[in-house]
Specification:
homodimer, mainly alpha, Arc Repressor Mutant, subunit A, 6 helices, DNA-binding
DNA sequence: TTTAATTCAGACAAAAACATCCGAAAATAG
DNA sequence: CTATTTTCGGATGTTTTTGTCTGAATTAAA
C-alpha cells in the first residue's frame, strides 16, 4: 500500500550521501571525479546523480569544474559537512520536526499521546546524523571498513 | 528536491492511524461509523480512506459491515492494536529495519559508521509505536486531550 | 586554435504514490 | 419485497518522485 514510516532515506538522499562520501574520499589527494565514475562506484543512475550533485554544488556543499578533465571534488572545509547538512540541503529542515502521528497542531502545549517519547527518539536520530561527517566516513573507507555499493 | 528522511508517516499511514483512532473511539458504545463521517472527522479524502480501511479490514484490524446502517467498527480485542501494527499492515515490517545511510550490505558484521547508534535510536522509535495502542488514544480523546483533524 | 570530455540547464519520460469514479453486492427499515 | 444506504472491487485519473535526453557552455590538452 503506502510508504509508511521511513526511518530511512529517500532515493535522492541516499544517492546524495553515498556520492558525497565517495567524492570526499577521492578528493583526499586532490583529484576530481566525474559523474560516470561516481555512478559506477555507488550504484546509482548516472544522469540522476549528476542532477543531484549540481544542486548540492550550487548550495556550496562541494566544488565542480566543467570541461575536459573536470568533475566534482570536496575540499578540506567541505569534508566537515554532516549527513544532516546533506539531508537539509535536499529537503529543508522541517523533516527533523513534526509529530509522530502526523497531527499538525501537536506541540508542547497540545501534545499527542506519544509526543514526549517520540521527540526524544527523533532528537537522538538527528544528533546521529549531525555528528556523522564526511571526514569520518573517509577514514572508514580507507581502512576498508565500508563499501558504497548497494550490496 | 527529494523527500529525505521521513521520521514521519506517509499520507496513507497518517490517514490510517487517524481513522483507526477515530473508529476505536466511536466504537466504545458499539456504534458503527461510515467513511463520510470518518473522513470529515479526520480531514482526509473520503474515497481514499475508504480504500485504505477496506485493506485493513481484510487483514482483520477492524470490522466492516456493508449495507444501510453499515460502517466500520473496532471491537475490544482490536482496540489493543498498536500503531506499529497498523504501519506494518500497510507497508510490511522491513521499514523497521534497514541501514541509516541506505547501504544494503550493512549489518552487525559489516556495519556502516553510524550503525550502532542508529540502530539504538531506531529501536527506541519502534518501541514507541509498538507500545502506543488504540485503547490508549481512546482515553486521550475522551478527556479532550487530542484532536484528530490536521490543524 | 582545434578537439575531446566534461558540467550545466531545461525539457521530457517513467514509475510510484495519492486520489477518484462507477457499478455491483449486501444489509436493513418499512 | 422494495427502496435506500452502505461497503466492495476494479478501473481510471492526478501528482510527486525518480530517472533520461539533448544541446549548449566550459575547460584544458595537444
Amino acid at each position: 500500500m503506502g510508504t509508511g514510516i521511513r526511518i530511512m532515506l529517500s532515493k535522492t538522499c541516499e544517492y546524495a550521501i553515498r556520492a558525497m562520501i565517495y567524492i570526499a574520499q577521492q578528493s583526499k589527494n586532490g583529484s576530481r571525479v566525474n559523474v560516470k565514475e561516481i555512478a559506477s562506484n555507488i550504484d546509482s543512475p548516472e544522469l540522476f546523480i549528476g542532477k543531484i550533485l549540481q544542486g548540492l554544488s550550487k548550495k556550496g556543499l562541494l566544488q565542480s569544474l566543467p570541461g575536459r578533465y573536470g568533475g566534482f571534488y570536496i575540499n578540506e572545509a567541505e569534508a566537515k559537512t554532516s549527513l544532516a547538512d546533506i539531508v537539509i540541503a535536499i529537503d529543508g529542515d522541517k523533516i527533523f520536526k513534526g509529530c509522530g502521528v502526523g497531527l499538525g497542531y501537536c506541540s508542547e502545549k497540545k501534545p499527542c499521546p506519544i509526543h514526549a517519547d517520540y521527540k526524544r527518539a527523533r532528537n537522538a536520530l538527528y544528533k546521529i546524523y549531525k555528528e556523522a561527517t564526511l571526514w569520518q566516513f573517509r577514514e572508514s573507507i580507507s581502512k576498508g571498513e565500508i563499501r558504497l555499493k548497494r550490496e
